[in-house]
Design goal:
Layout: E1 8-13, H1 15-18, E2 23-24, E3 28-29, H2 31-43, E4 48-51, H3 59-72, E5 77-81, H4 84-87, H5 94-110, E6 114-118, H6 134-151, E7 154-156, H7 179-193, H8 216-239, E8 252-257
Parallel strand pairs: 1-4, 1-5, 5-6, 6-7
Antiparallel strand pairs: 2-3, 4-8
Length: about 270
C-alpha cells in the first residue's frame, strides 16, 4: 500500500466475486468485491477498481483468463477466490485446484500486491443435499490456507463462524450469498486487511428468528422444490457441457474510479 493508501484493486474469481445473489442482471450486480472496493475508497480517494470475475469459472479458468489481465493492471490490492465450482464436480482434484489458486497468489504477491482470499463455508450445513461434498470444501480450505501462508496472503476466515451458514445470509439457490451475506463477506475481508473502521461484528450471529414448527414432510418438500428449481438445471448444464458463464465477459474488465459508499446498504435482519 502506498503512503496514500491503495491505488488499484483488482478482483479475480467466479460468480461469488461477480456478485450473484446481490442484485440481478437487469439492475446490475453489486456483490462483496464491489462493497469492499467502496469501503477501501472511503479511505483511499482516487481508488481504481476492476472486477474480472465471471460466473461458472473453475480455478484453472480463473488463472488462464484473469491472471494476466490482472497483472497488467499492476494492482496493489487483489482478491483471489476460486474453487467452489471445482468441488461441485465429482472428479475434482483438490491438489490441482489449490495449485491454480496458489499460482495466482504467487504471481500477484511477487509483483508487490497485497492479496486477500476467504474460506468457503461447509455447504452441507446450508444445503442438506450437498452434505456429501462438505468434506471436500473443508479440505480445499485447508490447502488454500496453507498456500496463503506460504505467500503472505491475507485470509478472511469466513467459514469459522456459525453465522456463515445462517440461511438468511444466502439467496434461494443456497449457493450464492444474498445481499446481507455479501455485506458480511466484504466486512470480513476489510477486517482481515485491517482497513480503518473495520471490526469483527461480521462474526456475530444474526438476531434469533421467530420460531416456526415445520413438519418433516414440509422440509422434504422444500428440498425437492430446491432440487427441481436449482439443482436440476445445474446438472442439465453439466450433462450438456455447458456453463452459466458461457459467452459472458467480466462486468468491470478495466480499472475505473470508485465512488466511496457512505455506509452499508444491505437490508437489516
Amino acid at each position: 500500500m502506498s503512503s496514500s493508501g491503495y491505488l488499484r484493486y483488482v478482483a479475480l474469481g467466479d460468480s461469488h466475486t461477480e456478485g450473484l445473489g446481490d442484485g440481478d442482471d437487469v439492475r446490475g450486480l453489486r456483490g462483496w468485491a464491489d462493497r469492499l472496493a467502496e469501503q477501501v475508497a472511503r479511505h483511499c480517494p482516487g481508488l481504481l477498481y476492476a472486477n474480472l470475475a465471471v460466473r461458472g469459472r473453475k480455478a484453472h479458468q480463473v488463472r488462464a483468463e484473469q491472471l494476466a489481465p490482472a497483472l497488467a493492471m499492476r494492482p496493489d490490492l487483489a482478491t483471489v477466490v476460486a474453487g467452489v465450482n471445482d468441488v461441485l464436480r465429482p472428479n475434482c482434484d483438490l491438489d490441482e485446484v489449490a495449485g491454480h489458486v496458489e499460482a495466482m497468489f504467487a504471481a500477484l504477491t511477487a509483483q508487490g500486491a497485497t492479496v486477500a482470499t476467504l474460506m468457503f463455508p461447509d455447504v452441507g450445513r446450508i444445503t442438506p443435499l450437498a452434505r456429501p461434498i462438505g468434506h471436500r470444501v473443508l479440505a480445499l480450505n485447508a490447502r488454500i490456507r496453507e498456500a496463503a501462508d506460504r505467500h503472505g496472503v491475507v485470509v478472511a476466515e469466513t467459514a469459522a463462524h456459525a453465522a456463515a451458514t445462517d440461511p438468511r445470509l444466502w439467496c434461494a439457490d443456497r449457493l450464492h450469498a444474498g445481499p446481507l451475506g455479501h455485506a458480511r463477506i466484504a466486512a470480513a475481508v476489510a477486517h482481515a486487511l485491517g482497513l480503518p473502521g473495520s471490526d469483527d461484528k461480521w462474526t456475530l450471529p444474526l438476531p434469533a428468528a421467530a420460531r416456526t414448527d415445520i413438519s418433516a414432510w414440509r422440509t422434504v418438500g422444500a428440498e425437492l422444490r430446491w432440487a427441481g428449481t436449482f439443482l436440476g438445471p445445474w446438472v442439465g448444464r453439466r450433462l450438456r457441457g455447458r456453463s452459466s458463464g458461457d459467452g459472458r465477459q467480466a462486468k468491470r474488465p478495466t480499472l475505473l474510479p470508485v465512488a466511496a459508499s457512505a455506509g452499508d446498504t444491505a437490508p437489516a435482519v
